[in-house]
Amino acid sequence: MMRFTLGIPGFDDAQIPRIIGLAGGSLLIANHVLGSQPTPLAQTLAEVLGLALASLAFAIPNLDAWVNGGKQAASATITGARNVFSLAEDLSEDAKVVRAR
Q: What are phi and psi of 93, to 5 degrees?
């Protein structure tokens, strides 16, 4: 889902959305607890929306693994299935190398 890396050794970059969601949700809860009481309706609605978005960001790594796992399992369960890579016979060797990358 996210196509960049932090380059930190030992850190799985797929977990970046989860960390962002956890940090955002924590800040929203801290803002609610430390904010003015009683909480205005507009602030409450904004916090509910923010928590929904933080929850979605927290769940993205699981959703990504579920979707990608389903794609791999679907192709692996077909009996007699095989992968085929074919190029046109009239292509030059250089063109074949470029397309095969």
A: -60, -40
The structure tokens listed for 50 are 């923010």
The C-alpha atoms of residue 66 and residue 60 are separated, in whole angstroms, by 10
d(CA 6, CA 22) in angstroms, rounded, equals 18
Domain boundaries, the chain: 14-78
pTM of the model: 0.59
Chain centroid to Cα 1, Å, comes to: 3
Rg (CA), the chain: 23
Three-state DSSP class for 11? Answer: coil
Which tens digit of pLDDT belongs to each residue from 30-67? 999 998 889 899 999 999 999 999 999 999 988 888 88
| Angle 35-36-38 from CA coordinates, rounded to 5° | 125
